[in-house]
Amino acid sequence: MHEREPIGVIGTGYVGLVTAAGFAELGNEVFCVDIDADKIRGLERGELPIYEPGLAELVERNRERMHFSTDLQPALDQARLLFVAVGTPPTYSGDADLSAVDAVVDAMPPSDRHALVMKSTVPSGTGASIKRIFAERGKGGFSYVSCPEFLKEGSAVADFLHPDRVVVGDDGDWAGDAVVALYAPLDAPLVRTDVKSAEMIKLAANAALMTRISFINEIANVCEATGADVVKVAEGIGHDRRIGKSFLRAGVGFGGSCFPKDSLALKQLAANSGYHFQVLNAVIEVNELQKRRVIGKLADRLGSLRGKRIALLGLAFKPHTDDTREAPAFVLAGRLLSEGAGVVAWDPVARIDGLAGVEQVATVEAATRGADAVVLVTEWPELADVDWPAIAAAMRRPVIVDGRNMLDPDSMRAAGFQYDAIGRAASNGPR
Ligand code: UGA
Predict the structure, then answer these.
(1) Is the pLDDT assigned to residue 297 strictly greater than 60?
(2) Residue whose CA is closest, atom 22 of ligand 1?
(3) Using the 8-state DSSP alphabet, how is residue 417 labeled?
């Protein structure tokens, strides 16, 4: 086998760790760097800072090829390609906060044998300004490649190993060729382009996915007004190959560490150059309203929510992750508390630390016992196996809002529930 090139990975969050473990699996020696000493010590002991299915096994299997340090030097000594996977959270203005990326750029020594390979999601134009900074500081020999990441939390390992495509944006020098060679064993379609276009591909891909979600959520809201069933509507339009089936699940809106921040970052990227991105503004606004519509559904059933006990099932922004960043459950909890309701929450892995006034319990039964209503917020597979008739019997009022259209309306009604979902008015009455 052709010898695999050692790489450095700076940042050991979701993207960094999955990238590191994925390349180790392909046979590369990987030198991981993070400024967080506790995290690095934990990783050296084989402890992962995040929950991601399959990742612990991948790291364990490739331990010999994965090296962890708070020091950049081993990575610089051993690798030419330094993948950057640090956080780019939103600032108060909604622009991406690039301070962690800037710190990496500052830490690079002058070199004509290294390249930064940007995995972090950054505004289009970031690569150009980094190259300018390198040139101004006598580090013009440093190469730069944009290699955006498209993995999803919860299926990140599979997404890395079986990507829909690999995007490499570069200046046509050795570094772009080296990144292409790294990904070659995955046999994925390759899009090779300039740096700015690669950066824009990442932002546009996420914007397209969010647009689909807000679109189907608006269709769901119209379905509620007209008596149609959005689940059937999504199925019906999804068969059209030009439309496709994925990302048409109506629900309580999107959350997570990416969509909310990336929508703001793209909106501000456009606005900073004087362009008003109308579709994206609507996508963001629909998503904000969508989370709040659940409160109206509960009030329709219960009247005033003051003093009512509401159970939230699911805290993570989606199943198979412990990530609660921008999770709809937190907005719902906040709204319920401000309406004067009592909130009790269950999630198999995520914690609600940091939200005062919400009680978290270990089982669905404990969360729902004596509750006036339950809201299914995250479609954890565990919820398919719950004894719903027993849950309904133990509630003060058997009201459920299925915020992910996960459960079967007829079975839930047969179980004794007053069942509401998102965009499924048709199932309330005769077909
Ligand atoms: C998203 C993208 O899907 C990835 O391709 C991208 O790499 C990543 O952001 C990123 O930029 O790092 P992720 O945030 O992990 O991945 O999760 P998704 O599976 O995309 O879900 C995002 C949110 O949309 C969740 O709250 C989910 O519940 C919601 N969603 C998704 C819907 O409400 N309906 C759908 O049909 C699909």
Answers:
(1) yes
(2) 254
(3) -
